[in-house]
Design a protein that fits this description.
- This protein is of the alpha/beta class.
- It has a domain of about 220 residues: Spore Coat Polysaccharide Biosynthesis Protein SpsA, Chain A.
- The strands form two sheets. A seven-stranded mixed beta sheet has the order 3-2-1-4-7-6-8.
- Helix 7 packs parallel to helix 13.
- The longest helix has 23 residues.
- The radius of gyration is 30 Å and the shape is globular.
- The termini are far apart.
- This is Nucleotide-diphospho-sugar transferase domain-containing protein.
- InterPro entries: At1g28695/At4g15970-like, Nucl-diP-sugar_transferase.
Length: about 350
């Protein structure tokens, strides 16, 4: 210890130590000047090798990319205040039932990450944000879409056409999608029953299935369909929407049906599948087998209150089915069926 202290008192040794330290400092000056330079160079190098980075262009692009699957497919539903907020006498909403079906369904919960809820008024948008979902606010100048739009009323027809216009924009941005009305209960992952082959341009639900997946005689229902983004489908929806002003008194679904019966599928060389109600059912024609059904649509029903009432019964039936299946009561499960859709039947009176 005394030897070390004595050495540092020697000027020659001290000078030699100082010169060595100075050389070391000069040798490593580039690193000492900026200790993060190596990481920054690596970062810049990796960025220079990355191409085709898609930067969201606007709020819609940001919402679509957030909800998109890897193959640029999204699930889209459109809501307004009447679907999102309870009235005084109600104990739930259509939106609540819709989301509950994803919770109760088989392999459907992960699909909520790919669901984009499009709100056409501010109240519905606020409700969507409150539920921490993927939300987009669709604005329409000079039109109030907030309240209930009774089936086939003038405001109902306007709202359906605005929906079609929006969905054209989604296709043009390169996104394929399942469109689903909010009054569709998702009891199983529908992708298991849908073809993911890109040669299938459109797969659309029907009110009554005629036994032939390609028959153009079906009564289509635009409340649930899966459409690929390509030039043919963009052209189809463009022709469809262009007929809006020449179809007074008709809803958009009727116009598309007339186009199909008029030969638009062959004209555009489209490949279209008309979905079997055994898997994609509704109140017009119930699925005959709860072991196979994927979705249940409250079609053939006029009012929201009637739909909510009868869809609550659908979820009760589904929970009963799941319970008996869990108990392995095969004979009971086979005989289970749907409750009658009384309120929807009476909604037409």
């Amino acid at each position: 210890m005394d030897h070390v202290k004595h050495s540092f008192r020697n000027p020659a040794i001290l000078l030699l130590f100082f010169v060595g330290f100075l050389c070391l400092a000069v040798w490593s000056s580039s690193y000492i000047t900026n200790p993060f330079s190596v990481f920054r160079k690596e970062s810049l190098s990796s960025q220079s090798n990355t191409t085709n980075i898609r930067v969201p262009q606007d709020e819609l692009e940001e919402a679509l990319s957030k909800a998109s699957m890897a193959n640029k497919t999204v699930i889209i539903t459109i809501i307004n205040k009447a679907y999102a907020v309870q009235d005084i006498q109600a104990d739930t909403t259509m939106l609540d039932l819709f989301l509950e079906s994803f919770w109760l369904g088989e392999n459907t919960r992960p699909l909520l990450d790919n669901l984009l809820i499009v709100a056409i008024d501010q109240t519905a948008y606020d409700r969507c944000l409150f539920r921490r979902l993927n939300c987009y606010r669709l604005k329409t100048d000079g039109v109030d879409f907030e309240g209930e739009k009774v089936y086939m009323s003038e405001d109902f027809i306007k709202m359906m056409w605005r929906r079609t216009q929006f969905l054209i924009e989604v296709l043009k941005r390169g996104y394929s999608f399942i469109f689903t009305d909010t009054d569709v209960m998702w009891l199983r992952n529908p992708f298991i029953r849908l073809s993911t082959n890109e040669t299938e341009d459109l797969q659309i639900s029907t009110d009554y299935f005629l036994g032939d997946l390609r028959s153009e005689n079906h009564q289509i229902n635009t409340g649930f369909y899966y459409i690929q983004s390509n030039n043919k489908t963009i052209k189809l929806l463009g022709i469809w929407y262009a007929m809006k002003n020449d179809s007074r008194g008709q809803k958009e679904q009727d116009v598309l049906l007339n186009l199909i019966k008029g030969g638009i599928i062959r004209e555009l060389n489209l490949r279209v599948t008309f979905l079997d109600t055994l898997y994609f059912s509704g109140f017009c024609q119930d699925s005959k087998d709860l072991r196979l059904v994927a979705t249940v649509h409250a079609n053939c029903c006029r009012s929201i209150s009637a739909k909510v009432n009868d869809l609550k019964a659908v979820l009760r039936d589904w929970k009963q089915f799941k319970y008996t299946s869990y108990k392995r009561l095969a004979n009971v499960t086979t005989n289970l069926g749907w409750s009658m859709h009384w309120r929807c039947s009476k909604s037409w009176n």
